[in-house]
Design a protein that fits this description.
The complex is a heterodimer of chains A (483) and B (356). With 483 residues, chain A is mainly alpha-helical. Chain A has two domains: 6-185, no CATH class; 190-482, no CATH class. Chain A is built from 21 helices and two strands. Chain A is globular, with a radius of gyration of 24 Å. Chain B has 356 residues and is of the alpha/beta class. Chain B has helices spanning 2-29, 48-58, 96-108, 149-157, 163-178, 199-207, 209-213, 229-245, 259-265, 267-277, 306-316, 337-351; strands at residues 65-68, 86-88, 115-120, 187-188, 196-197, 249-254, 282-284, 330-332. Classes of the chains: A mainly alpha (483), B alpha/beta (356). At the A-B interface, helix 1, helix 9 and helix 21 of A face helix 1 and helix 4 of B.
Chain lengths: 483, 356
């Protein structure tokens, strides 16, 4: 079920809230009700993948329970079980997400005719697999323990974060479910949650929806793209993915808050970042944290020798790229960040100075260029946009400027009607500067929710949410549903 | 807490009030006609893709033959196809993938099909059927996509109308209230023939044919750069396979495209026809022939008129009581495709005016 659908907003969410608070006196019943609701949420539209989620929950619960139950002196057994549990999750993920990529590459390399797997990627598999891998590791480290299947199921499948995160830790959510006070109806949380949900809905439907039209027209339409159109295309996607994913996260955090559950913040104004490391501390924070704690640090992290630290950085970002999608463009996108992180570390080591504005400018443009590989379906699409951005397809200027600039007689510069230059994306030139301004100078939605006051000003965002709800005709999946 | 409680109910009121108001308005207006039994006062084109398939599945024994295609095949008058109980399933911008899904669904629902007449054109290999999933004018009947209709009804009724659509609907109501009845430009015969009749427009054309012939709207050209030839041919191959498997007589034909549309199609259209000829034989009514070069046979550059549809039927079903111009409608197969395409090229060289 999509967050930006009528059935979610006006039927499912109110129904789940009523169920939760109605049965709050009987902890077991309210928990069971919410688990069933979460499975319904997951299976809505595609019931075939529900057994997969059930199997994954049962498997991880069992492994986690055995690992925590084994005494300390059976360390080897515990480690073997943990390895088997992680491997099972990775096999599942590998089969559904990476099998076709692997087979396709084998076919190309060795000219074999292996058949690819038919069928769709189970929704949220990357998220619930990573979340539960983290649980197993925490069980092994004895920082998590769960003996009740319903409680575990409640944590593993809680619908606000089930499909697209944030990737939560057991220790930051489960204690909240168990607190008695959290089961009481809290109007402050209900209001702040609804407020955050409305902001997220507006970001997704109205803002990201608008940018998606321009990004799709440029990326998927016929090429080549002129300089301005190529920049409008790449920047449109840069803002589309931000407003789409952060909008989704706002809706997830808002819905969870209505249940009195505070989820970790996943975005913190990422386009204000001054370097790539800073960017990953602000963008998809829960994924960055997972990769740091469960990949980078176990590899040796910063404490390793310099060469090894560079290698670790590269591995982490390659995993990050691969996690996002089974394709070479995603891996290359990860590689770009890995290379940038290595260069940054080296730059810092030699003590290179950088004024803030220049640092921001370089970081933002790097992120924007890297998104081109992330969005493009093929290398050709990526190169089509990038060659336009670098001016390789010429600079088309509006024909109304030909009077003033007509003296420039260069074949790369031509004067065309504005409509032709922008191919129907003219409004992008108003929206893009506006989005830059909003991203750099406005408080982000989490800060707004933290400072929420129940006054008429905050009702403005409810009206914005209502406006968005009226424009949900075009039901678009969230971009991160594909990962 | 009391302040928050008040605020929460205010917020809920704003949300539910806004969406509820939109729902009530849409329920009364029913802009794309999903709940209508009578289309007399239908002011914008209804979602025929949805309504017609639902209607057929509700009446599975009423028809045994169907005309599929875009709005261009609306002019195929099913009453003139003899020996079959025929229904015109056309809808605005209908594409092969939608037809494939619809045919598959009708067969699954036990509709016995004897004949399918499938009208194709340049749009059949250019337009993206995925776009239809975002358009209330073309949204398919959800069970065709293995979906329950309920979420779509929610979306349909609780979303706001596009401003232009709202204006059209309001204008329609204004006309209905302040003008004489019987002056609707179009009549949607949704639950009998499936066709849309434009008697009033036809009368206006016949009253002054020369004015119509010289209307500047016929100077319009529209080059569409998109191309999904590979996918479209794959979908058509599946339709051919499905028809064979269910012993359905399938007749494919290329619509008589207006000369401008034909000239704008370019070499992609030839590739399309060539690929099509390897799937099945088909009638080709496009080209620069005596019908397509006369504006009187068209409403505008996109849609041909019913009398042209009658010629198409007469050619396909060999109706001898109607005189069909000899240059109109060729039977094309893999064997004669090269010769046929060369003939069309020669027609262009001989007859086409310089491209604007």
């Amino acid at each position: 079920m999509l967050f930006n659908s009528h059935e979610y907003l006006f039927l499912f969410l109110p129904g789940a809230l009523i169920l939760w608070f109605l049965f709050r006196r009987w902890g077991f019943l309210s928990g069971l009700g919410l688990v069933i609701a979460s499975f319904f949420f997951y299976g809505y539209g595609k019931i075939a993948h529900v057994p997969l989620l059930m199997g994954s929950v049962l498997l991880n619960f069992s492994v986690g329970r055995i690992v925590t139950g084994l005494p300390g002196h059976q360390e080897r057994k515990r480690k073997a079980l943990l390895t088997a549990g992680i491997a099972a999750n990775l096999v599942l993920l590998g089969y559904f997400k990476y099998f076709n990529f692997f087979v396709t590459n084998l076919n190309v390399l060795f000219n074999t005719g292996m058949e690819v797997r038919q069928g769709t990627l189970p929704l949220g598999i990357s998220f619930f697999s990573f979340t539960q891998i983290a649980f197993l590791v925490d069980c092994y480290r004895r920082s998590a323990q769960e003996d009740h299947l319903i409680s575990y199921g409640l944590w593993a499948t809680f619908f606000p974060y089930l499909l697209s995160g944030p990737i939560v830790r057991y220790s930051e959510v489960m204690p909240q479910f168990k607190e008695r006070v959290k089961k009481a109806l809290n109007y402050r949380n209900l209001s702040a949650g609804l407020y955050l949900l409305s902001i997220g809905l507006f970001k997704k439907v109205v803002i990201a929806g608008r940018f998606s039209e321009w990004a799709s027209a440029g990326f998927d339409g016929p090429g080549p793209l002129n300089f301005f159109y190529a920049w409008a295309t790449s920047l449109s996607y840069t803002f589309q993915i931000y407003f789409d994913f952060s909008g989704y996260t706002d809706m997830a955090l808002g819905a969870a808050l209505m249940f009195n559950i505070r989820l970790p913040v996943n975005f913190n104004s990422p386009y204000k970042a001054l370097d790539v490391q800073d960017f990953w501390r602000r963008w998809h924070i829960s994924l960055g944290r997972f990769l740091r704690d469960y990949v980078y640090i176990p590899l040796g992290g910063n404490r390793a020798k310099e060469g090894r630290a560079y290698f670790n950085l590269m591995v982490v970002f390659l995993v990050c790229g691969l996690w996002h999608g089974a394709g070479w463009t995603f891996i290359f996108w990860g590689f770009l960040y890995g290379a940038a992180a290595v260069i940054l570390r080296f730059w810092r080591k030699i003590g290179g100075p950088m004024p803030d504005f220049l640092a921001w400018f370089l970081t933002f443009n790097f992120v924007n260029a890297a998104w081109v590989f992330f969005r493009a379906r093929t290398w050709e699409d990526a190169l089509k946009v990038l060659s336009g951005m670098f001016g390789l397809n010429g600079f088309s200027l509006p024909d109304s400027w030909s009077g003033a600039l007509g003296f420039i007689q260069v074949p790369q510069i031509q004067f065309l009607p504005w409509k032709e230059i922008m191919r129907g994306s003219r409004d992008a030139y108003v929206w893009i500067p506006l989005a830059v301004f909003v991203c750099l100078y406005f408080k982000n939605s989490n800060q707004m929710a933290e400072e929420f006051k129940a006054d008429w000003k905050s009702l403005f965002w409810i009206a914005a949410g209502a406006y968005a709800a009226l424009h949900m005709y075009k039901v678009d999946e969230f971009l991160y549903f594909n990962f | 807490m009391e302040r928050c409680r008040k605020w929460f109910f205010w917020a809920l009121g704003i949300l539910l009030g806004t969406v509820g108001l939109a729902g009530l308005t849409n329920f009364i207006v029913d802009p794309y006609g999903l709940l209508r039994k009578d289309f007399t006062y239908q002011f914008i084109e209804p979602d025929k893709n949805f309504i017609k398939i639902r209607f057929i599945t509700q009446n599975p024994d009423r028809y045994d033959s169907f005309v599929f295609g875009s709005s261009r095949v609306n002019s195929i008058d099913v009453r003139k196809i003899q020996g079959y109980k025929c229904y015109n399933v056309h809808y605005n911008g209908g594409l092969p993938r939608d037809h494939l899904d619809n045919i598959r669904y009708l067969l699954k629902k036990g509709v016995k099909i004897k004949l399918i007449l499938l009208g194709l054109d340049d749009l059949s290999f250019r337009d993206d059927p995925d776009a239809h999933l975002h358009q209330p004018l073309r949204y398919p009947y959800p069970p065709v996509l293995n979906q329950h209709p309920f979420p779509y009804y929610l979306r349909y009724f609780f979303s706001s109308l596009d401003w232009k659509i709202m204006q059209e609907v309001l204008n329609g109501y204004k006309k209905m209230l302040f003008k004489k009845s019987g002056d609707h430009p179009v009549f949607y015969d949704m639950f009998d023939t499936g066709q849309m009749f434009s008697y009033q427009i036809d009368r206006q054309i016949e009253d002054n044919p020369e004015k119509h012939r010289n209307d500047p709207k016929f100077l319009k050209h529209n080059i569409i750069p998109r191309n999904r030839l590979k996918e479209a041919i794959k979908e058509l191959r599946e339709i051919v396979r499905l028809a064979e498997a269910h012993q359905v007589r399938l007749v494919l034909f290329i619509n008589p495209l207006h000369k401008n549309v034909f000239l704008d199609c370019g070499v992609d259209f030839e590739r399309y026809k060539r690929a099509l000829s390897h799937l099945s034989g088909f009638y080709d009514f496009s080209g620069l022939n005596s019908v397509t070069t006369d504006n009187i046979n068209y409403y505008e550059t996109s849609h041909y008129r019913p009398k042209v549809g009658d010629l198409v039927i007469a050619r396909i079903f060999n109706q001898r009581n109607i005189q069909v111009p000899e240059d109109f409608g060729q039977w094309v197969t893999a064997e004669n495709i090269d010769h046929h395409l060369e003939t069309l090229r020669q027609q262009v060289i001989r007859g086409a005016k310089p491209y604007p």
